[in-house]
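Our consortium's second objective concerns turning raw sequence data into structural hypotheses that experimental partners can test. To show how far this objective has progressed, the report includes one record in full. It was chosen at random from the queue rather than selected for favorable results. The single chain below, 226 residues long, was entered without modification.
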Amino acid sequence: MKITFLGHATLLIEVAGKTVLVDPFISGNPKNNNQVDKDSLNPDYILVTHAHQDHVLDVEDIATRTNAVIVSNYEIATYYENKGQKVHPMNHGGSWSFDFGTVKYVNAIHTSSFADGTEGGLPGGFIITSANKSVYIAGDTALTMDMKLIPMFTKLDLAVLPIGDNFTMGVDDAIIASDFIECNTILGYHFDTFGFIEIDEAKAIEKFKASGKLLHLLPIGNSLTV
């Protein structure tokens, strides 16, 4: 899997000949500075962790243009299906085998509502498994004991964790989370976009290193391969 960081909590994953876009918030991201053009993206699937604007802003435009399948919880999938989009609804604990790999929808502790006030159901995260590699995308979440369940069924090669604090876990809780999920290779996201979630990046990297872990903080547009 090639994973490209597109800013904030937006990821582009290239796997098994397919392209998967996660939580597209591009056109409204103040840190983007035209590094990413949402109209240049052609995903086959769009995964949505929850309904907040900083995760769904560009979902409808991109899905309409590309005919991508939107994968999310039942409430979010229904919201977009009612707008004429192709969807695949899921719910917590469920898995589905897509043509790029298996996706499991797992718990997250957060809130979830659309900008128009529509309820977005319960938030979640995704575990994507393909070609014997597994990646956990936590979404917006607090540290939760449910994370201890993940190693019971999946050996993770990479975990994408929020580290910006205030709205989600901060760095210290993310280090504990990495212990819970038994994964020492972390891609940090959901930080620095706004004033509430600004962090000291060098200090964050050093804290993970002191705990025997590797924290990747990618510039927008940069990639890593699992």
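The partners drew two points from this record. The two ends are 5 Å apart (CA to CA). The mean pLDDT is 98. Both points have been shared with the crystallography group to help prioritize constructs.
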